[in-house]
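Pipeline run #58 for the internal structure catalog. This entry was flagged by the ingest filter as a single-chain record with no existing model, so it goes straight to prediction. Upstream metadata was stripped on purpose; only the residue string is passed forward. Reviewer on rotation: M.T. Logging verbosity set to normal.
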Amino acid sequence: MNVTLPPKITPPDPETPREAIKRQALREALKREAPPEPPKRQAVRQVQREVLTRRQMSLLAVGAFVLVLITWQAGALDGLLYPLRLFVSLIHELGHGLTAILTGGRFEGFVVYPNGSGLARLRGGNPLLTPQMGYLGAGFFGAALLVLANRVRPVRFVAYGLAVLIGGCVLIFTNSGGILIPLLIVSAIAWSVSGSIRRYRALILVAAAVCALLALAIAWTDTTLRIGLISALLLAALGTFGVRPLIVFVLNFLALMVGLNALMDIWFLFGDLGASVQGYPNDAAAMAHLTGVPTLFWVTLWVALVVSMMVTAAYIAFIRPLRRIVGL
């Protein structure tokens, strides 16, 4: 019986390192000899990438705006809205204080109360600007953050800068902050030297822990410090661990929330022009007393200005870049 065996297949010889180098060199030579992409096609691809990026940024902003509206309207989310309300009050009071500094006055401190109201202690400064820059300062903050979050490419640095600004201000311009700073410094120094001083290492670590716990207790009992330091830590963590879309989304949410909240706070004054905090008149009433112009005028003016700032910021952040890309 004759059996036909299949032909024996001889495996190819393994490629030597020299042949592999030659093959790689040939591939690179073919790449270099390939005709370059026409400039027009390159420009089209660049425009397409930019348009896609801007669309993604716009979608993130729209998503943030929808979340703001849901948070605002849903009574079940009051727990989330409360710390944001305190954050807006913090920005409001910093607007007064920083304006006083910029116009030659002194910012002696500020406080945010648990009910969401606040009070800044000022001395000097421009009397026509400092009362207005609470509401307008919060509106400007929201508008500026909206632009920065969508136009600055290394957006994590926006989060870092905001964390430093807020954390530094609450430590410097609150009564308890003056106690907190030395405690934090001592705790940090003790932690850093504990490894090099072995004989008293346990004692140094205990001292560091005590200082840190005291600082935490002081910060937790002070509403202003608590909301400011927690905000600063969360923003720093966002900048460190967050991916770009998440950072942009959160900063857009924060910008829109602060801007909308500032607008609603001003709108509230339409129904109560004589509202006061701890016996002090509201900012619009203070401007009316200072200038003789009715309170209603200042409330109306501030609503118009805040709306204008937010609309302008949206244009700069989203519409103008697209117009430049497509050549409109």
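catalog note: Residues 39-73 form the longest helix (35 residues).
catalog note: The radius of gyration is 29 Å.
status: ready for reviewer M.T.
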